[in-house]
């Protein structure tokens, strides 16, 4: 059983993999074949089943776990698997699709515990009550949803993982800069991307909801906070409420990135900066993860199209 | 009694004027004087009272109407009044400050009637109820507030004047393009700048409120619509609600102008375009209003720093 | 006889279609085939003739009307026609290629009448004479040419259709803003894109002429006006001539869009704005025309790469 | 008799100078004084006449040559002349204002001879005839007008000086790159700024004409060439005519600098580049002309706000 | 003895202050006066000595400590001191100018100790040796120089203060992201601004050196590292040397901010981000330091011209 | 024996060509074939060997000279060769690969002589010694390396060819502008791209070295000059050394093109401008080289995506 990231060029292998996507195509000569993307926790690889008979088309659908014997080769410079022998995994074999998807490196229980410990540290009543109210509403989704469709943290549980890493950064930075209001930092970080739970349709093959498309998650979290305040009887001119909404609305940092207002208090600026910091760390990590030391990565569009070097020295 | 726009260079004049602003300054040689800006419906002009004794300082305050005799001259190329004789207007004289401020060229009753006629044309129930609810809440402010602090429509009643001119444009354009949903156009135009009533402190010497500064009028109108929908029992995923919010949120057209989302339906794009059209017409009108035919205006910063020509031919 | 926009996936159909373009290609295995794009008034669709014998190559040329029986399927997510049976349309069948091309939704006679009525409203003699002179010169082309190669109004008669829609907008807007000189608005709108008749080679498979490429239609209309003025004995410093040329030269609004000068009179700015308005309406219309309600369009490059939503409600 | 560039700080001097500009101002305390800018061939310096009696106001007007005794000092870091004794120059003294204005460092006769020699080298008939025709029309202005209002070559004769320096560059560069069409280079350079003669009002205290403002010199030279071609019977689709117009229209290099089209032939690109080269050389020269070695200049706005260093070594 | 930040409007005060700068100016009426900027640890304030006799000019020079009695007032909205009585501080009074300058809030001994502790943690030999070598060369300047001329950390000791705050951030962030090479982070942070010691002339009234102007501190630190490597016998193709130079060269993050190369390893990106973080914290801190709660600051040019709000709540 | 640029469409030909690159690919049906790019001095053309047996794969490798008989045809609008008969060139045939590569149009001996003559003209001792020292170090590479990977002068010897063309321009321009320091111009031009010898791996199939990627050639030449100065005992604050380094560091003209500093002396600005001039001439030359008169080229990305016209007239 070989993991995808360990497959060697020119060698045959076998193992269990998840069919991530499959498409029925025709060769120029008019013959049907199946173009399949295989996946496990360590990566993805493509291959074609040239004999796309009816049974094959019916069996090999996205979401199915299969046993595959095949040869890894290069096609136009990109790895693919050829000479494929494929069958569905049986019930006695490891056929749970969840085991093959990339997901958050930390388990949910630990994340929940850490989030709770941070909520305790939010001393301001307005912020504490609003955070609790919204966390409760999205109790399930917050730990399942990705933080993005593509780019960074685009995996199951990515939203909570991204948020908690930012909470750690916020804790550290408040130690260096005691002038920062740590309660506001924590409340702002916890909620900043929460409305991704409304913007996305779910955690598998996610896409945008209609309100995600027409309003966006920044407006949607502001709506949630406004409504929570209304329900909790918090006045709409109260300074602490305005400060929290300001941090959430401005967390993209620049108008051209979709914030309707730019950060105008220290905590808003810092929440924006640690959001960028974690997003860029995750993207650089992903870009260089499968490189050999001494190699450069592909260009990363969301990081100004830079490519990144993986040093040989430790 | 001479209007400010009719004052002749090098000639003495007298009349009643409003003190728009006044500042106590010192000459380099350490002597106090009052730097005053005078105003009537037709414009403003500056002048200095060199003998700033206590009585003068006390009497000549912003908001007071005065009788002035003076000489109009140029100082470094800018008109100012010199050799000023000043006294407060008495009760038997025209001393109502409201009569000296620039204001909307249409009277409030006509505006109210027109707005009502448009509300009747909003056929969709969600939009109609939300518009009525919010119009009611800002019933007074909508007809008093300016549409902007500086730039365009920065006068009492400017908000309603700008909004109703845009409604006229919307009506006309819906005749040319029947594919536009006129109900949505009307609802969107009516509400697009309504939260200026929350963003500004009032209609005299207006400045930004705290929520105006930290959230901005685009976010504030979205909050009002969300709350109105909650109170009216309109579901937060209803398409017509989302479309209206989308039109309001995107009406600045570009992210860099403070919209968190760009127009993605026809009506949103058109509301944005007629907003720009009326703002630019008003700014060009203001820039060229006091020019002689054949002259160029000052540069208008908000119109890409262009200056505008007033033709000689009609 | 099924229109292209009504073809159903997975179903056989037959009907008459125009060959819009055809290319002789080779499979990787070295076999010739014909890649054809079929067209009718409602859209286009592609398909391949795998047996590209000499007779086929000779018969099936661009501009020919054919009778086709075929099956609509998807190839890599894009619709195409397969299992094609093809023959030329006979003289007794509907074989006039003009009937299969997209064209202006209004007929030429109505457009001509409307244009004439507007010319009557141009009261200034200079503008009236120049407009008549140039309209006469391009009497045929103005009603045949497209308004653009791709983007908006890229169909036969598109130039006149775009121009007359703008004239309607100009009429309406002059009602809202009586300070606009309607004669100048009409003259400017009528001529603004007229030199597309010199910039493009024609209305079928149009491309750029050499002077279109090296000078562009803005410079070319300025040349036409200058020459007309010379012939009509209108002095080159006359203000009304300069104003008209200014409106034409500045109608792209910004230097970076190819205007050598930015709008500096009200009418020039408004002509630019209604040009943008009609172009964007037409592009949004085209982008959403074939969508189901509730769907988003493809991204539209010329509208800042936005995609547009077609609402479910009316 | 001391030249302005040789005046020493803290020393009295006397000599003849031209009054470049004069303004009647008031001190804050209400007293009239004259603010004068004095000029000779080597520079300008400012000073105030504190006793602005009627006679002084009448005598000391712009364009008058005066005899001045004064002291050079610094005022807020800028040189000015104080303790001024002033009288008009008499007829027996050097009172010709032309002798005090900055002007082209080469004399007109030499420039004319050089321009003629270049015209002889334009071998293509179309270009040669058009150049001769336009040179003849602007025979006087071409040698008198400046090349710009401010920035570079803003002095009498500056247009011809700038043009002939560019011709020298064109000659040299055609030696390095024989693939360039030298006739087109020469014709393009000779005409590129010629319509400054229509854009500016003259060579003293120049400002923009109405057509300069509303059309600009790029459009105006295109008009001149089009009309010359019409008169000379050169067809408006002839390639050589189009190439010349293309070079002239594109000589600002970028759309945002006012060219309606970008250079698309080699010669157009090179004319643009040598135009930039000569303009930047002249601006750097001016910026550093009066510096001591080892000093940095003021920032030069038209050169991206850079400041320039004058080295100590030769 | 009142600190400048505690001076009350409209009240007389007395105390010792440093003359930060002084200029001899003339009133428009020709009378000399001294324009002085006074300073202590808490801020600066301006005032004029209207009787600028010879003795005053001689005594009151920049760098002198004076005893002042005066009245704090507003002049055109800006605080200044009037009715000044001034004398030099005597030897028995607190006349050490160092005591009046703003400086780093941490003392030098603590900073030195902390820096040493970090150097011990740089485990890679190349980096450790280069850091020691350069720290030794700038042993004195590193603890005296400011980090910038204006903007952030523009005070004595600012360079070391900024660097050590960044070191703290680096330590914390390496805890959150163990994949970062902490030795490289520390070496990069320690050296990143070190060449400010070559770019600036010193720590009082600092300006740019010639090499500061012509090369800049990024190039200068690269030169220092290259030379140190040459002296220490470290090959110029060694990967660890290249990585360190890359971090230093890219620490401005973007080419347009003067880095000749953008960050292409994780550590370079993170050094850039914590540099921005500390600079923006310091600028926001400075901008809001003297505000009342509930006020907005002036606009901060280096933070995209934003102004910052100081909340009322803690 | 036909040169590639002279091959006619639809005709068989034969001759000797170099295999520039070769790739083993599979048809969609799974059959191996060789995709080969053939090259001679005049251009490149592609073709496929459909029978990729073991012997073929072994023989036909990049760098081999072959004898080919084949037919030139179009495939999707691009020229390719079909019906290929291929064999390796024998020892008695023209099989030296160097004879088939594009290279500098001037021979190395002439270039060396010209470079020497220029070195003699560098009168300043610092510059002369540094230039000699660095020229000596890169004596071989300077005449072999390309000036760029793609874009302009991307051929063997391109670096020296580009440099010497710029030297010719520098000589000419110093004649027009005697105020330029020709010694500095020559030294700057000679060294400006010299570190491409360190940035690239070589002159065949060149790629970037690690230091090329992480530091770039601008930083690398600055390192070379600094070290040369150290070895030659030239002080690091000497003005002439700083001026030369400034010219080299700023030769890309703008920060966003990778210069850490912008040109701030005349010579630096001029070196930048003639660098741009030669690069753009070479790119326009390349783009239009194989066009028929009257055609437009492909768009050239590095010239703002313009396409260029090749006139019909000479």
UniProtKB/TrEMBL annotation, chains A, B, C, D, E, F:
One of its GO terms (molecular function) is exonuclease activity. The keyword NAD does not apply. This is HD domain-containing protein. GO terms for biological process: rRNA 3'-end processing. It comes from Lactococcus allomyrinae. The keyword NAD does not apply. Residues 160-278 form the HD domain. InterPro entries: HD_domain, YhaM_exoribonuc/phosphodiest. Transmembrane segments: none annotated. Keywords: Exonuclease, Hydrolase, Nuclease.
């Amino acid at each position: 059983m070989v993991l995808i990231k360990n497959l060697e060029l020119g060698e045959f292998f076998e193992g269990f993999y998840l069919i991530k996507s499959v498409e029925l195509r025709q060769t120029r000569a008019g013959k049907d074949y199946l173009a399949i993307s295989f996946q496990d926790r360590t990566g993805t690889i493509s291959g074609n089943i040239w004999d796309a008979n009816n049974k094959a088309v019916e069996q090999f659908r996205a979401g199915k776990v299969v046993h595959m014997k095949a040869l890894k080769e290069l096609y136009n410079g990109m790895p693919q698997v050829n000479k494929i022998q494929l069958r569905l995994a049986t019930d006695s074999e490891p056929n749970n699709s969840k085991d093959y998807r990339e997901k958050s490196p930390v388990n949910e229980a630990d994340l929940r515990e850490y989030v709770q410990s941070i909520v305790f540290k939010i001393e301001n009543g307005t912020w504490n009550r609003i955070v609790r109210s919204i966390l409760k509403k999205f109790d399930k989704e917050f730990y399942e949803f990705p933080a993005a469709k593509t780019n960074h943290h685009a995996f199951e549980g990515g939203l909570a993982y991204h948020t908690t890493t930012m909470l750690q950064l916020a804790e550290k930075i408040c130690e260096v800069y005691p002038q920062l209001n740590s309660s506001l930092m924590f409340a702002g970080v916890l909620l900043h991307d929460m409305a991704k739970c409304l913007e996305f349709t779910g955690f598998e093959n996610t896409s945008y909801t209609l309100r995600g498309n027409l309003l966006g998650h920044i407006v949607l979290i502001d709506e949630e906070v406004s409504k929570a305040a209304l329900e909790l009887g918090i006045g709409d001119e109260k300074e602490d409420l305005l400060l929290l909404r300001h941090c959430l609305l401005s967390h993209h940092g620049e108008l051209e990135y979709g914030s309707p207002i730019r950060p105008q208090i220290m905590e808003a600026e810092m929440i924006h900066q640690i959001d960028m910091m974690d997003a860029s760390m995750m993207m650089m990590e992903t870009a260089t993860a499968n490189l050999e030391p001494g190699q450069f990565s592909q260009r990363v569009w969301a990081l100004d199209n830079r490519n990144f070097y993986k040093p040989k020295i430790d």
